[in-house]
Amino acid sequence: MDTRVALIGIVVENLDSVQEVNEILHNYGQYIIGRMGIPYRRRNVSIISVAVDAPADVISAMSGKLGRLDGVSAKTVYSKLTENDNGQN
Question: What gap in Å lies between CA 32 and CA 9, rounded to an integer?
Answer without folding.
Answer: 13
